Amino acid sequence: MGLLDILLGRTKPVAPDLDRLFALPSAAVTLEAAAGFTPSGSGAVCFATVEGAAFEQTHREVQALLDADADRDGPPVELRRDDYGYSWLVSQRAPDQLHLLVNDLHAVNSSMEVNGFGPQLLCSLAGFRDDAGRTLALVYLYKRGTFYPFAPLPGGGQRRDNALELRVKAALADDLRLEQDLSRWFPVWGAPGL
After folding, report:
1. CA distance 177 to 146
2. What pLDDT shows up at residue 22?
3. Fewer beta carbons below 10 Å: N end or C end of the chain?
4. Tens of pLDDT along 66-122?
5. How far is CA 91 from CA 49, 78, 94, 119, 125, in A?
6. Can you point out the beta strands (E) in the chain?
7. Residues of the chain whose pLDDT is less than 50?
8. What is the 3-state secondary structure (H, E, C) of 147-190?
């Protein structure tokens, strides 16, 4: 970054660090102790919709890579589109296999990045539930290299439990690199994998 960038207030974008995803299993232990949320076994990678043969080849590579896992029931990853036009590669594991789910998310992100689709990557999420049936996602922002909690309120609608999100942020401050700019805690309404 040069002097002109400093004077004009330009900042260098944070490089994504996919290895931060591997902190999720230890953060899950803290999350369960602090708030009673346990892994749901669902996770997903969101990206701007991509069409064409190159993406289809990448999707097949991800499928083949994850299909080699004998501990999985059903398809390794499922491609879904949401109501907002974004694509999601969704992985489903047993709730006690968060470490394998994290491996899946890392593999999907890495494959997309290596094949030139890094600019389309938006976020990854791992789903959690509590005994009352509430859902929570720990969302990794690809372009920021940070996490934030997203807690939709039960009963449908597009309302979120901000108090729970802030409690989770405080509880996980030592486990994950959390996004400090709350305006970047984007809602992921209807996200597959949540």
Report:
1. 5
2. 97
3. N
4. 766 656 566 678 888 888 888 899 999 999 999 999 999 999 999 889 888 888 999
5. 18, 7, 10, 21, 10
6. 38-48, 78-81, 86-92, 121-129, 135-141, 146-150
7. none
8. EEEECECCCCCCCECHHHHHHHHHHCCCCCCECCCHHHCCCCCC
Q: What's the CA gap between 104 and 111, in Å, rounded?
A: 11
Say how many C-beta atoms besides its own lie within 10 A of residue 84's C-beta: 11
The predicted pLDDT at position 112 comes to: 87
Question: Angle at Cα 187 formed by Cα 181 and Cα 189, nearest 5°?
Answer: 170
**Residue appearing with tokens 């597009």:** 158
CB-count burial class (<10 Å; 0-12, 13-18, 19+) for 165 = middle
pLDDT at residue 7 in the model: 57
Contact 48, 87 (CB under 8 A): yes
- Residue 6: phi, psi to the nearest 5? -65, -45
Gap between the Cα atoms of 89 and 34, Å rounded: 29
Cα-based distances in Å from 130 to 33, 37, 117, 155: 11, 4, 35, 15
β-pairing verdict for 146-150 and 78-81: unpaired
Residue 110 has a CB neighbour count (10 Å cut-off) of 15
pLDDT of residue 11: 58
